[in-house]
UniProtKB/TrEMBL annotation:
GO terms for molecular function: DNA binding. GO terms for cellular component: DNA ligase IV complex; DNA-dependent protein kinase-DNA ligase 4 complex. The gene is 106085785. The keyword Repeat does not apply. GO terms for biological process: DNA recombination; double-strand break repair via nonhomologous end joining; response to X-ray. It is found in: Nucleus. The keyword Nucleus applies. Residues 205-215, 242-251 have a biased composition (Acidic residues). This is XRCC4 N-terminal domain-containing protein. It holds the Pfam family XRCC4.
Amino acid sequence: MATVSINKLLKKTESPEGDVKPFFYIQTKWLEDQIIIKLQDSETNNCYQGMVTIDSMKEAAAELDVPYNTYYEECRLALTTHIAMPGCTYKLDEDENALTIWKTQDGSIPMLYMEIPLRTISNHYDILDSAIDELQNKSKTLDERVDKAHKFDQNSRELLEDYRICVEEKNQLERRLLRKVAVLLNSKKQKIAELEDRLSKYEEINDNTDNDGEDETRLMDDTEGEIRPHSSKKRKAVLTESDTDTDEDDFLANTQPLTMAETA
């Protein structure tokens, strides 16, 4: 897609007169295979048109021993800048009918960097018409961007309002949920307290039952302790009589005669 630029360049003259500086009003149209320029001299009011091909620019870059991409970008900047590119001067060679761009680096001798052949044209208002068209296009583009910005702003406001409503609804829902959770927790705490109370009462009853059982066991042990001595005395008496009878029976039992052994 072609791009068009319109700008003003400072014209280099051999003997400038007064404080008024001459300019070139230049229009450049950048195509894929060539560059077309239209130029008007503020001193003579003459108009010119020229063209340079991409192939000729590649040849010039090779002669200057400069990479083509670098050369192309520098030439484009030199033709589309306002007033002048630093280190460059612009001259109109009327003998050769060409626009020449001279470049100076670090105080060196100026060298011819670009040359564009020109021819005189009679349409003095072509650049002005192009400038008006360019302004109209830019104004239209600017209006479209402003409309888009207004629409974007309106959409942003609507989105912000929707976001505010969503946040408010979320906060209300959180508050309702917190209230419900608080009620549920309180009921659970109450039930837990009731269960703990019932458990403590149950444990107290069990403790009392165990104490009663221990008292009964202790009472039974005491009762048996009181009964056991009498039975032991009777048993002792019985044992004594039986032992006496046994001794008497042994004493009254028949005895065998004692015989002496014969001696040889």
